Amino acid sequence: MIQIFTTGGTIDKVYFDANSAFEVGDSLLPELLSESNIHEGYRLRELMRKDSLEMNDTDRAAVLQAATESDCDRILVTHGTDTMADTAAVLAALKDKTIVLTGAMQPARMRRSDALFNIGFAWAAVQLLPPGVYLAMNGEVFEAGAVRKNLKAQRFERT
């Protein structure tokens, strides 16, 4: 069984025309999993609905606590990309679980989003990787503490 936690981020953003802004909405993760033909073998729990730039140490501690308390050895976390590496660094304290964080550069609701690919890739990664904390984005796996987001290139890279 794989535990999936959602925290918000771009993957779950919705465009609100009234104020011409994106806001985190209901998670599309159940739909994305179904579209990927993943129908069982997981438990889904929403932890929060935040843009990762709004996440703070208390939020990261809540993610750590949820992962610690989970009876699953394999955990997938959807997260905003801007501070995903920060949360991964906090989760690195857990040595006996395989934890994979993923997200999207474009909201899942947009036609050219990388969300569906990243979810499928992270689903495979969490099942295949040894215990540790990883980021799975755009076909690459990065170890926690050795990755950063390159804002200009809109991708993750090793540090």
Count of helical segments? 4
The dominant shape is: globular
Order of helices and strands: EEEHEHEHEHEEEE
Global mean pLDDT: 91
Query: Any idea what the radius of gyration is?
Result: 14 Å
How would you classify the helix and strand content by structural class? alpha/beta
Query: What do we call the CATH homologous superfamily?
Result: L-asparaginase, N-terminal domain
Main beta-sheet annotation = 6 strands, mixed
Can you describe this structure?
Helix 1 packs across helix 4 (115-128) and helix 2 crosses helix 3. The chain has one domain (2-158): L-asparaginase, N-terminal domain (Rossmann fold, 3-Layer(aba) Sandwich), CATH 3.40.50.1170. Helix content is 26%, strand content 33%. The longest helix has 14 residues, at 115-128. The radius of gyration is 14 Å and the shape is globular. With 159 residues, it is α/β, with parallel strands linked by helices. Helix 3 links the parallel strand 5 (74-78) and strand 6 (98-102). The chain has a six-stranded mixed β-sheet with strand order 4-1-5-6-7-8, sandwiched between helices.
Which terms summarize this structure?
single chain; 159 residues; alpha/beta; Rossmann fold; six-stranded mixed beta sheet; two-stranded antiparallel ribbon; 4 helices; 10 strands; 33% strand; globular; Asparaginase/glutaminase-like; transmembrane; transmembrane helix
